[in-house]
Amino acid sequence: MSMKKAKVLIAAAALALLLGGCGKGSTENTVSSTETAKAEPTEALLILYGDESQRMREFSENEFHDRVLDEINVDVTIQYLPWSEYAGGKSELMLSSGEKFATYTDIAYLSKCISKGYYADLTDAVDKYAGHIKEYCGGDSAFDVWTIDGKVYAIPMGNNPNAGENYVISARRDIMDEVGMDSLDSIEDVEKFYQLAKEKYPEIVGISRGGMNLLNLNAAIASDVNVLKLDNFVMTDGNKVDDDSVYSYYESEEYRQMCEITRRWNQMGIIPSYLLSNSSQGDAEFVNGNGLFASGTNNTVFEFMDMVKKSTPNAVFENFFLGDKKRKPLMSRGTYTTAFAVSANVEGAELEGYVKLIDLLQSSQEWVDFITYGVKDKDYKLTEDGQVERITQENLFDTWMPNNINFKRYPTYATEEQIETFKNWDEDSILQKNIGFAFDMTPVKTEYAQLLAIEQEYLNPISSGFVDYEEALPAAIEKLKQAGLDKYVEEYQRQFSEFMAKKNGE
């Protein structure tokens, strides 16, 4: 028997004993145990990803568990899996085998799972028990991206400014100052900064976390097309908000230009030779303060500094949108602000318990502080101006997960400029036109599986600059064609056109 289950049973037994003793007196005002006793708690399993700290294990089994049980009568357990198991692997095996749990999802994976019947319909439970999410996380529209055919399949978590998400490169501001650079506005600026930094710090690494995301380069290439990837293989022009046209991403001129840059960066050393096969080494270099750049979002300037300051106290990060700053589509909540989906066979009071749980975690400043920083005066303290000073350095819930502009606590090292940049990040952004669209993979699921395998083997090395684009792409495209790329794009176009026509009232 688990410690948590034992706690629940002991509490129930104590209550029953108390009620039994009280029942021997006058019967006039006696209330039966069935009327007074708290209902049997529902169970909930949250699957999170990454490394679980010792303090998180203690926190989840004790303070967090007990408080959730007390407030909403849910007996919650947290289990961690490696990030490699996200959107596949063990987590998908758990879904397919009917295990009961909730975990976060993205919009592409949401669509895939719904087509396989893996996720529960949360619509009614959300209407009843997600009031705090609607109040603090963007209103009813927060659920739009997680709604398919009028049914809600995931519960958003957080409310984070997210324009141009993953179109951002985070760089070491402190080293920029040392070498006399004010800003990174272009590809040339990045290359110049790297060369100057290498002269001063020969052992420093270029791209050191998050791999090389081509979308970082989107606004800096010589094209009028604002690349908005709809999935791995299909893109659209984010600038044309009413246009339903989709294109094969790997056959686009924009992809070619991006690959030209990554090839050059690979040869220059900006992209380390090990990054494609050993991303954990890049992560380690980054945490040790030995990395210049990382793929990021607007909030990672704080997250990255939290990581790196442990080894390099003077480290400062700043986010840069390379190129035209007005070419940043407002990315959906599926990319950074996450959402929790519940496995399909959870129903009734148990399903309602999951919705109550996710809603509770975003119900107040107190709760967001609790899951982010832990127990006040034990794990953290607040300064007079409301900034956080960590006592416990071990991670609890990942800070990006509950990040909410309504409850945001800024670290003591955050400058006013960084805070204002964060608050105003969404200004001049372009609304992402595919919000609310979910591709039904069923007609092309075989083709998609084949395309993913070819992408992994042939396209990823090209995208990261390890293989020359001009030499390797024709053969890779031919393999994609043989696997059914044209059929896949055609089906995507059909469904997306239907969605856009309905959206535009046609």
UniProtKB/TrEMBL annotation:
PROSITE patterns, A to Z: PROKAR_LIPOPROTEIN
Signal peptide: 1-24
Coiled-coil intervals: none
InterPro entries, alphabetized: DUF3502, SBP
Assigned keywords, A-Z: Signal
Keyword Signal (UniProt): yes
Gene3D superfamilies recorded: Periplasmic binding protein-like II
Domain (DUF3502): residue spans on this chain: 435-500
Name of the protein: DUF3502 domain-containing protein
